[in-house]
Design a protein that fits this description.
614 residues; alpha/beta; Jelly Rolls; TIM Barrel; eight-stranded parallel beta barrel; six-stranded antiparallel β-sheet; 14 helices; disordered N terminus
Length: 614
């Protein structure tokens, strides 16, 4: 079966972007940044990485019909976060809640060594600290010709002059390069302007093109790593082969885990939405986890009859196991102060040593109560950004948490989970290095780590597909004994065509890599999703393009049923996806059915013997 691609191929889009000019804008846009923004003090922050400046910048005279000056940025020490070094332009006018704003800018590459021939940066708009709320985050890229970007967004909080700011970040680069930005505008069209009435530059990603080389390579890996040979051997009660028997083999369940998170409250709802919530879960997924119910705070609050309740959570997990879904627990310890229950926070801030036992007691409590329902756990979540507990008591406590979990979970998988490994174009090197360093530390401390959990939250500039493979290969080569699972996959964009394309390509790349064991989306219904635009179903349960792609891949393209007859030796042979099957043998109008599992790791041919009853 063919999966639809965009009709405009990648090369055409790339060439078109060089020659395009600014689309006509509606009247009424008012500039909210100064005209001479490049000459302002503090317009560029060099930042630092590993003790050296990330980038340097100055203003250059350029020949362009729309502008005559550009800021040239020379990235000399790449590898930090995208915001670590940036052009910074602050508003000079007030912005009201609900205003629609358009950022317009041109970019070109002066010098780069990237295989694609482009330089990259990140345009983002944020509110004031300490939250620095992001209204726009968009990776931008260009070759040697000027490329126009038009990026509209809505403001949800009023911001007086000087509080809202536009930035063009240089810190997330992977290699040294030089680029220029000019013609920067930030126009406020007020609260009556709809986003769809403003022009918007469509996002793309490397690897989206239909003839990308990675596609054939991924298909070959899927054939090699996700399938096995089997034969059905049909014999009679005396053990003699039965030739020409009719054989039908039906695929029932993938061994690979295509999953999603649920809310216990919504899963158990007794109304039409609850029914559809359960129905779509079973139609599209074979693995699940709760989104928030097993986090320490919700678990401990225990509001009987409320949104979070231990009895309700356990009932939801019992339902998942009853319906044969592989289950995950999220999360035993999220070690940032604000993620901990209120009673625990003072113990951390005061470095009270009793806190260490309090955490171990929580691990014992939640794992023993859920052990019969949960197949694996995220033991630690996001230690790169949330490390207050380790700051108070040392990194060794992380190993203690894994060891305590293993006491009560003798066979379950135990994962370290974090973000930033696949995000930020795959170039968040500090985050990746910290994750690898933490895994090595845990293993050196004897922690029973079995897997690496990576969040996969993407926006309108998702990580290139070849880069995803590069990151997978690096971590698999470093830790070949650990499973890899994408634990929180979604694509937050209103561009549903891009969303569907990336769902198809990301899922294909993950499924093709032998170290991965599953992909879990962070929700599927707009009515219960932390980022509603990322959902697979609208609020009224209409399937979106990304849901259609997920269903087609997991239930059609990567699905197989077989039928035929046994040969003269009573054998029927095929090659299929690993997972659970049901074989039905028919002889002289009499049928006999038998279940079997095609197991990954079996050497050579797996034989299933069907002994016909007299």
């Amino acid at each position: 079966m063919k999966i639809r691609f965009r009709t405009l191929n990648y090369l055409t889009m790339f060439i078109f972007s060089f020659v395009c000019v600014a689309a006509p804008l509606p009247e009424g846009g008012v500039s909210v940044i100064p005209d001479s923004h490049f000459s302002l003090s503090g317009v560029f922050s060099a930042g630092s990485f590993e003790g050296r400046p990330i980038a340097e910048a100055d203003v250059q005279e350029v020949d362009h019909p729309e502008f005559d000056q550009a800021m040239q940025v020379r990235v000399v020490n790449p590898g930090a976060n995208y915001y670590s070094s940036a052009i910074n332009i602050y508003t000079t006018g007030d912005v009201e809640e609900g205003d629609t704003i358009l950022v317009q800018l041109y970019m070109r590459s002066i010098e780069n060594s990237d295989e694609s021939g482009v330089s990259r940066a990140t345009a983002f708009v944020q509110g004031p600290g300490p939250k620095y709320k992001k209204y726009l985050i968009r990776d931008i890229s260009a070759g040697s010709e000027w490329k126009l970007y038009q990026l509209p967004f809505k403001v949800t909080d009023a911001s007086p002059a000087g509080k809202l700011s536009l930035h063009i970040g240089a810190g997330g680069a992977f290699r040294p390069h030089i680029w220029e930005v000019g013609g920067v505008q930030m126009l406020n069209f007020g609260g009556e302007m709809a986003l769809e009435d403003l022009p918007e530059t469509r996002a793309t990603y490397v690897g989206q093109e239909p003839d990308a080389a990675w596609r054939a390579e991924a298909d070959a890996r899927i054939e090699k790593f996700r399938k096995g040979d089997f034969q059905i051997e049909v014999v009679d009660a005396a053990g003699a082969p039965v030739p020409h028997a009719e054989v039908r083999v039906e695929f029932k369940r993938h061994a690979y885990q295509f999953g999603t998170v649920i809310s216990a409250f919504f899963l158990l709802m007794e109304n039409s939405n609850g029914e559809l919530y359960r129905q779509k879960l079973l139609e599209l997924f074979n693995q699940s986890s709760s989104e928030n119910d097993l986090k320490w705070g919700p678990w401990e609050v225990n509001e009987p009859g409320g949104y979070f309740d231990q009895e309700q959570t356990l009932a939801a997990y019992a339902w998942l196991k009853e319906h044969n879904l592989y289950t995950r627990g999220h999360v035993l310890v999220w070690p940032g102060l604000w993620n901990l229950p209120e009673r625990v926070k003072p113990l951390i801030t005061q470095k009270d040593p009793s806190a260490k036992q309090v955490i171990l007691d929580h691990i014992k409590d939640i794992t023993t109560k859920t052990a019969e329902y949960v197949d694996e756990w995220d033991v630690i979540n996001e230690p790169y950004a949330h490390h207050d507990v380790m700051d108070a008591f040392g990194d060794e406590v992380m190993a203690d948490w894994f060891k305590e979990a293993r006491k009560h979970l003798p066979t379950q998988g135990l994962f370290l989970n974090d973000y930033g490994i696949l995000g930020s174009q795959g170039n968040d090197v500090p985050h990746q290095q910290h994750f690898a360093k933490t895994i090595r530390f845990l293993k050196d401390q004897g922690a029973p780590v079995t897997g690496m959990g990576w969040q996969g939250h993407f926006g309108e500039s998702p990580t290139s597909i070849p880069k995803v493979y590069e990151v997978l290969e690096y971590f698999h080569s470093e830790f070949p004994d650990l499973d890899i699972r994408v634990t929180e996959f979604d694509i937050n964009t209103r561009d549903y065509e891009l969303q569907a394309d990336y769902t198809r390509d990301f899922l294909t790349m993950l499924f093709s890599h032998p170290a991965t064991v599953g992909v879990q989306t962070w929700g599927y219904w707009e009515g219960k999703h932390w980022r509603p635009h990322a959902a697979m179903f609208t609020r009224d349960w209409q399937e979106k393009p990304n849901g259609k792609v997920w269903r087609e891949l997991t239930r059609e393209v990567w699905w197989n049923d077989f039928s035929g007859q046994t040969d003269p030796q009573g054998k029927f042979s095929e090659r299929g996806f690993y997972g659970n099957y049901e074989v039905t043998v028919s002889v002289n109008g009499k049928e006999q059915t038998q279940a079997f599992e095609l197991l990954k790791g079996k050497d050579g041919l797996q034989t299933v013997k069907v002994v016909l009853e007299p």
